[in-house]
Specification:
The protein has helices at residues 29-38, 58-68, 90-100, 132-149, 171-182, 190-200, 204-209, 241-253, 270-289; strands at residues 22-26, 45-48, 73-76, 108-111, 114-117, 120-126, 153-156, 185-189, 216-221, 224-226, 231-233, 258-261. The protein is of the alpha/beta class and 299 residues long. It has one domain (6-289): Divalent-metal-dependent TIM barrel enzymes (TIM Barrel, Alpha-Beta Barrel). The strands form three sheets. An eight-stranded parallel beta barrel has the order 1-2-3-4-7-8-9-12, surrounded by four helices.
Length: 299
Protein backbone atom coordinates (compact mmCIF):
# COMPACT_ATOMS: atom_id res chain seq x y z
CA UNK A 1 0.00 0.00 0.00
CA UNK A 2 2.93 2.32 0.69
CA UNK A 3 5.99 3.17 -1.34
CA UNK A 4 8.20 2.31 1.66
CA UNK A 5 8.94 -1.43 1.32
CA UNK A 6 12.10 -3.01 0.00
CA UNK A 7 13.02 -0.23 -2.38
CA UNK A 8 13.90 2.01 0.56
CA UNK A 9 16.21 -0.59 2.07
CA UNK A 10 19.89 -0.43 1.17
CA UNK A 11 21.58 -2.92 3.47
CA UNK A 12 19.55 -5.92 4.57
CA UNK A 13 22.19 -6.87 7.11
CA UNK A 14 22.08 -3.63 9.08
CA UNK A 15 19.04 -3.45 11.35
CA UNK A 16 19.62 0.10 12.48
CA UNK A 17 21.01 1.86 9.41
CA UNK A 18 19.64 -0.19 6.53
CA UNK A 19 16.81 2.19 5.67
CA UNK A 20 17.05 5.63 4.11
CA UNK A 21 13.68 7.32 4.43
CA UNK A 22 14.85 10.93 4.31
CA UNK A 23 13.57 14.15 5.81
CA UNK A 24 9.89 14.34 6.68
CA UNK A 25 7.10 15.86 8.69
CA UNK A 26 4.83 14.71 11.47
CA UNK A 27 1.35 13.99 10.14
CA UNK A 28 -1.34 15.68 12.22
CA UNK A 29 -5.06 16.24 11.84
CA UNK A 30 -4.34 19.94 11.28
CA UNK A 31 -2.01 19.47 8.30
CA UNK A 32 -3.49 16.34 6.73
CA UNK A 33 -5.84 18.09 4.30
CA UNK A 34 -3.16 20.47 2.97
CA UNK A 35 -0.65 17.63 2.59
CA UNK A 36 -3.17 15.70 0.49
CA UNK A 37 -3.96 18.80 -1.56
CA UNK A 38 -0.39 19.86 -2.32
CA UNK A 39 1.69 16.69 -1.80
CA UNK A 40 4.81 18.81 -1.36
CA UNK A 41 8.01 17.54 -2.93
CA UNK A 42 10.06 18.86 0.01
CA UNK A 43 8.91 15.85 2.03
CA UNK A 44 10.46 12.39 1.69
CA UNK A 45 8.34 10.66 4.33
CA UNK A 46 5.66 11.25 6.96
CA UNK A 47 5.47 10.17 10.59
CA UNK A 48 2.12 9.00 11.97
CA UNK A 49 0.79 7.63 15.26
CA UNK A 50 -1.16 4.45 14.42
CA UNK A 51 -3.46 5.00 17.40
CA UNK A 52 -4.96 7.98 15.59
CA UNK A 53 -6.40 5.67 12.94
CA UNK A 54 -7.45 2.54 14.85
CA UNK A 55 -11.05 1.69 14.08
CA UNK A 56 -11.62 4.93 12.23
CA UNK A 57 -12.92 5.78 8.82
CA UNK A 58 -14.12 8.92 7.20
CA UNK A 59 -12.19 11.82 5.75
CA UNK A 60 -9.12 11.70 8.02
CA UNK A 61 -8.50 8.01 7.35
CA UNK A 62 -9.01 8.45 3.61
CA UNK A 63 -6.44 11.26 3.67
CA UNK A 64 -4.01 9.01 5.50
CA UNK A 65 -4.42 6.25 2.92
CA UNK A 66 -3.91 8.69 0.06
CA UNK A 67 -0.75 10.08 1.65
CA UNK A 68 0.55 6.56 2.29
CA UNK A 69 0.42 5.95 -1.45
CA UNK A 70 2.77 8.91 -1.97
CA UNK A 71 5.10 8.91 1.04
CA UNK A 72 6.72 6.20 3.15
CA UNK A 73 5.15 6.22 6.62
CA UNK A 74 7.25 6.16 9.79
CA UNK A 75 5.08 4.83 12.63
CA UNK A 76 5.59 6.37 16.07
CA UNK A 77 3.44 5.15 18.95
CA UNK A 78 2.26 6.98 22.04
CA UNK A 79 0.58 4.21 24.04
CA UNK A 80 3.10 1.38 24.52
CA UNK A 81 3.92 2.54 28.08
CA UNK A 82 7.25 0.72 28.12
CA UNK A 83 7.94 1.60 31.76
CA UNK A 84 4.56 0.75 33.28
CA UNK A 85 4.48 -1.75 36.13
CA UNK A 86 1.50 -3.49 34.56
CA UNK A 87 2.07 -6.17 31.89
CA UNK A 88 2.33 -4.89 28.34
CA UNK A 89 -0.98 -4.44 26.58
CA UNK A 90 -0.63 -7.24 24.05
CA UNK A 91 -4.00 -6.45 22.51
CA UNK A 92 -2.71 -2.98 21.70
CA UNK A 93 0.53 -4.38 20.27
CA UNK A 94 -1.37 -6.86 18.11
CA UNK A 95 -3.59 -4.03 16.89
CA UNK A 96 -0.48 -2.03 15.97
CA UNK A 97 0.98 -5.01 14.13
CA UNK A 98 -2.22 -5.65 12.21
CA UNK A 99 -2.57 -1.98 11.26
CA UNK A 100 0.98 -1.22 10.16
CA UNK A 101 1.72 -4.42 8.23
CA UNK A 102 -0.04 -3.16 5.09
CA UNK A 103 2.39 -0.22 4.94
CA UNK A 104 5.65 -2.23 5.11
CA UNK A 105 7.14 -0.04 7.85
CA UNK A 106 10.87 0.09 8.41
CA UNK A 107 10.46 0.15 12.19
CA UNK A 108 8.16 1.18 15.03
CA UNK A 109 9.04 3.57 17.85
CA UNK A 110 7.71 4.84 21.16
CA UNK A 111 8.96 6.67 24.24
CA UNK A 112 11.22 5.62 27.09
CA UNK A 113 8.67 6.41 29.78
CA UNK A 114 5.42 5.20 31.23
CA UNK A 115 2.08 6.61 30.15
CA UNK A 116 -0.45 4.42 31.96
CA UNK A 117 -1.20 3.36 35.53
CA UNK A 118 -3.56 0.52 36.44
CA UNK A 119 -4.85 0.44 32.87
CA UNK A 120 -5.61 4.16 32.67
CA UNK A 121 -3.86 5.81 29.72
CA UNK A 122 -2.48 9.32 30.24
CA UNK A 123 -1.86 12.03 27.69
CA UNK A 124 1.53 12.72 29.26
CA UNK A 125 4.88 10.93 29.03
CA UNK A 126 6.08 10.33 32.59
CA UNK A 127 9.79 9.84 33.32
CA UNK A 128 11.43 6.72 34.64
CA UNK A 129 14.05 6.79 37.40
CA UNK A 130 17.62 6.54 36.13
CA UNK A 131 18.29 3.34 38.07
CA UNK A 132 19.50 -0.19 37.45
CA UNK A 133 16.11 -1.45 38.60
CA UNK A 134 14.34 0.57 35.90
CA UNK A 135 16.75 -0.71 33.23
CA UNK A 136 16.13 -4.29 34.29
CA UNK A 137 12.39 -3.63 34.13
CA UNK A 138 12.16 -2.04 30.67
CA UNK A 139 14.73 -4.13 28.77
CA UNK A 140 12.70 -7.38 28.65
CA UNK A 141 9.57 -5.38 27.87
CA UNK A 142 11.25 -3.81 24.83
CA UNK A 143 12.34 -7.27 23.73
CA UNK A 144 8.73 -8.45 24.05
CA UNK A 145 7.53 -5.50 21.97
CA UNK A 146 9.96 -6.36 19.19
CA UNK A 147 8.88 -10.00 19.29
CA UNK A 148 5.16 -9.22 19.10
CA UNK A 149 5.48 -6.58 16.38
CA UNK A 150 8.12 -8.53 14.45
CA UNK A 151 9.72 -5.17 13.66
CA UNK A 152 12.82 -3.29 14.73
CA UNK A 153 11.88 -1.03 17.63
CA UNK A 154 13.37 2.37 18.53
CA UNK A 155 12.98 4.04 21.90
CA UNK A 156 12.83 7.84 22.28
CA UNK A 157 14.46 10.02 24.93
CA UNK A 158 11.81 12.22 26.57
CA UNK A 159 11.86 15.66 28.17
CA UNK A 160 11.14 15.88 31.89
CA UNK A 161 11.26 18.40 34.72
CA UNK A 162 11.94 16.36 37.87
CA UNK A 163 13.74 13.11 38.58
CA UNK A 164 11.42 10.47 40.07
CA UNK A 165 13.73 9.53 42.92
CA UNK A 166 17.48 9.83 43.30
CA UNK A 167 19.21 9.08 39.97
CA UNK A 168 21.92 6.43 40.07
CA UNK A 169 23.37 7.50 36.74
CA UNK A 170 23.27 10.26 34.16
CA UNK A 171 20.52 10.43 31.56
CA UNK A 172 22.81 9.39 28.74
CA UNK A 173 24.00 6.38 30.74
CA UNK A 174 20.42 5.30 31.34
CA UNK A 175 19.36 5.66 27.69
CA UNK A 176 22.50 3.95 26.41
CA UNK A 177 22.18 1.00 28.78
CA UNK A 178 18.55 0.47 27.82
CA UNK A 179 19.10 0.46 24.05
CA UNK A 180 22.23 -1.69 24.23
CA UNK A 181 20.85 -4.30 26.63
CA UNK A 182 17.52 -4.45 24.79
CA UNK A 183 19.33 -4.49 21.43
CA UNK A 184 16.94 -1.92 20.02
CA UNK A 185 17.23 1.30 18.04
CA UNK A 186 17.30 4.87 19.31
CA UNK A 187 14.97 7.68 18.33
CA UNK A 188 16.92 10.75 19.37
CA UNK A 189 14.77 13.81 19.94
CA UNK A 190 17.25 16.69 19.77
CA UNK A 191 14.75 19.18 21.20
CA UNK A 192 14.13 16.97 24.24
CA UNK A 193 17.88 16.67 24.63
CA UNK A 194 18.33 20.44 24.53
CA UNK A 195 15.44 21.11 26.94
CA UNK A 196 16.81 18.63 29.49
CA UNK A 197 20.37 19.92 29.11
CA UNK A 198 19.23 23.45 30.03
CA UNK A 199 16.83 22.43 32.78
CA UNK A 200 19.22 19.98 34.45
CA UNK A 201 22.49 21.67 33.54
CA UNK A 202 24.33 18.95 31.65
CA UNK A 203 26.54 19.14 28.59
CA UNK A 204 25.02 18.16 25.24
CA UNK A 205 28.38 17.18 23.79
CA UNK A 206 29.07 14.78 26.67
CA UNK A 207 25.64 13.23 26.11
CA UNK A 208 26.28 12.74 22.39
CA UNK A 209 29.77 11.37 22.88
CA UNK A 210 28.38 8.58 25.03
CA UNK A 211 25.38 7.73 22.86
CA UNK A 212 25.55 4.59 20.66
CA UNK A 213 25.38 6.52 17.39
CA UNK A 214 25.20 3.33 15.37
CA UNK A 215 21.76 2.66 16.87
CA UNK A 216 20.13 5.94 15.84
CA UNK A 217 17.32 5.10 13.44
CA UNK A 218 15.29 8.25 13.69
CA UNK A 219 15.63 11.90 14.71
CA UNK A 220 12.96 14.30 15.95
CA UNK A 221 13.46 18.06 15.62
CA UNK A 222 10.94 20.28 17.41
CA UNK A 223 10.38 23.49 19.35
CA UNK A 224 9.86 24.53 22.96
CA UNK A 225 8.78 27.53 25.00
CA UNK A 226 11.12 29.65 27.12
CA UNK A 227 9.66 30.22 30.58
CA UNK A 228 10.99 32.44 33.38
CA UNK A 229 13.46 29.90 34.76
CA UNK A 230 13.13 26.75 32.66
CA UNK A 231 12.34 25.49 29.17
CA UNK A 232 8.93 23.93 28.53
CA UNK A 233 8.82 21.26 25.86
CA UNK A 234 5.71 22.01 23.83
CA UNK A 235 6.56 20.69 20.36
CA UNK A 236 4.46 23.66 19.34
CA UNK A 237 6.96 26.47 18.73
CA UNK A 238 9.46 27.33 16.04
CA UNK A 239 12.70 25.39 16.17
CA UNK A 240 15.51 27.57 17.49
CA UNK A 241 19.18 27.70 16.55
CA UNK A 242 20.62 25.64 19.47
CA UNK A 243 18.34 22.74 18.53
CA UNK A 244 19.35 22.98 14.87
CA UNK A 245 22.98 22.97 16.05
CA UNK A 246 22.44 19.66 17.83
CA UNK A 247 20.97 18.16 14.66
CA UNK A 248 24.00 19.46 12.79
CA UNK A 249 26.31 17.86 15.32
CA UNK A 250 24.55 14.50 15.24
CA UNK A 251 24.53 14.52 11.43
CA UNK A 252 28.31 15.04 11.54
CA UNK A 253 28.73 11.93 13.70
CA UNK A 254 26.55 9.30 12.03
CA UNK A 255 24.16 8.50 9.22
CA UNK A 256 20.50 9.24 9.95
CA UNK A 257 17.88 6.98 8.36
CA UNK A 258 15.05 9.45 9.03
CA UNK A 259 14.74 13.04 10.29
CA UNK A 260 11.24 14.21 11.23
CA UNK A 261 10.20 17.79 11.92
CA UNK A 262 7.62 17.43 14.68
CA UNK A 263 4.83 19.85 15.53
CA UNK A 264 2.20 18.54 17.93
CA UNK A 265 0.15 21.72 18.39
CA UNK A 266 -0.04 25.35 17.32
CA UNK A 267 0.67 24.31 13.74
CA UNK A 268 1.53 27.22 11.43
CA UNK A 269 0.48 27.26 7.75
CA UNK A 270 1.97 24.42 5.71
CA UNK A 271 4.56 26.66 3.98
CA UNK A 272 6.05 27.48 7.39
CA UNK A 273 6.20 23.80 8.31
CA UNK A 274 7.93 23.05 5.02
CA UNK A 275 10.46 25.82 5.68
CA UNK A 276 11.64 23.86 8.72
CA UNK A 277 11.78 20.68 6.64
CA UNK A 278 13.99 22.52 4.16
CA UNK A 279 16.19 23.73 7.01
CA UNK A 280 16.62 20.16 8.24
CA UNK A 281 17.45 19.03 4.72
CA UNK A 282 20.07 21.76 4.31
CA UNK A 283 21.78 20.63 7.49
CA UNK A 284 21.82 17.05 6.22
CA UNK A 285 23.13 18.09 2.82
CA UNK A 286 25.89 20.07 4.50
CA UNK A 287 26.83 16.97 6.47
CA UNK A 288 26.87 14.98 3.23
CA UNK A 289 29.17 17.54 1.64
CA UNK A 290 31.48 17.23 4.64
CA UNK A 291 31.75 13.50 4.10
CA UNK A 292 28.96 12.04 6.28
CA UNK A 293 26.28 10.11 4.38
CA UNK A 294 23.67 11.54 6.69
CA UNK A 295 20.30 10.56 5.31
CA UNK A 296 18.79 9.19 2.15
CA UNK A 297 16.16 10.70 -0.02
CA UNK A 298 17.88 14.08 -0.26
CA UNK A 299 16.59 16.22 -3.05
Amino acid sequence: MSKTSAGQKKNQGDRFKGYRLGVGLGLRRENSEDLVKYKPSEIDCLEAAPENYFGTGGKLYREFLELAEVYPIVFHGISTSVGSLKPLNRNYLKEVRAFVKDFSPAWFSDHLCYSSVMGAQFHDLLPLPFTEEAINHVVPRIQQIQDVLDLPFAIENISCYVHPGEPEMKEWEFVREVVERADCGLLLDVNNLYVNSVNFGFDVEEYLQHMPMERIMHIHVAGHRVMDDFLLDTHGENIIDPVWKILERVASLTSLPAVIVERDNNLPPLPDQLAEVRMARQIIENANAAGVSAVGGAK
